[in-house]
Amino acid sequence: MVYTTRLARGGRGRGDGTGNGFETLLAELGITQKNGKPFKPTTQGKIERFWQTLKKYLHAHPAASLTQLQTTLDTFRDYYNNTRPHRGIGRRTPAFAYQLIPKATPTRPADPNIWRVRYDTIDNDGKITLRHSGRLLHLGIGGAHARTEIICLVHNNNATVITHSTGELIAEFTLDPTHNYQRKND
Q1: Is residue 66 part of a domain?
Q2: Residue pair 173/185 in contact by the 8 Å Cβ criterion
Q3: Angstrom distance (rounded) from CA 140 to CA 138
Q4: Residue 165 in contact with residue 147, Cβ under 8 Å?
Q5: Which domain does 89 fall in, by range?
Q6: CB-based burial of residue 40 (10 Å sphere; 0-12 exposed, 13-18 middle, 19+ buried)?
Q7: Is residue 20 part of a domain?
């Protein structure tokens, strides 16, 4: 659910195509998200083979502490990417093959007037959390609206919160990414 809510129903993963914060961020950056299908070996086989290799390596190199485990994982990553030749790429290393391909970069949408639409439920303390400008912001809506299903409309540094059922305006915010807690506009 952290990476996709595409298959979710009800609650935060509405399943209606609105997506979660991660999916929204990718879309804003112009990145097309592609997820493998569960239980489909043709799409999951490569990563499942990687996990098998990693598990065997960890079994052969047991760690006694978290620091040792991190060192073991770092050593594995370096060997896997920079030393180990791979049959599928002409006995070259993945690092060598990676350097040969052009790198994709995110592109900002051409239209600066894009609105984000976020479906959420106000928590028991009367707040929602919103990712904005790379930070998590807590919008104080008020305890009277606890557990209310809402739609949050975000445009640049402005957020408008309305009830999902009636469209009634609950709160408006001018977002300030330098503060975690955001107070309603007067």
Answers
A1: yes
A2: yes
A3: 6
A4: no
A5: 41-100
A6: exposed
A7: no
3-state helix, strand, coil in the chain (%, to 5): 30, 20, 45
Model confidence, pTM:
0.44
**The total number of residues written for the chain in this structure:** 186
Q: For residues 6 and 20, give the distance between their C-alpha atoms in angstroms, rounded to a whole number.
A: 9
Residue type, position 21, single letter: G
Give the pLDDT of the chain (186 residues) as one tens digit per residue.
Answer: 667 776 665 544 444 446 777 887 887 777 877 777 767 767 777 778 888 999 999 999 999 999 999 999 999 999 999 999 988 888 999 999 999 988 877 666 666 677 889 999 999 999 999 988 878 999 999 999 999 999 999 988 899 999 999 999 999 999 998 999 999 998
Asked whether residue 45 falls in the same domain as residue 81, the answer is yes
Can you read off the two tokens belonging to residue 96?
A: 């060598």
Residue 45 tokens, joined: 């086989």
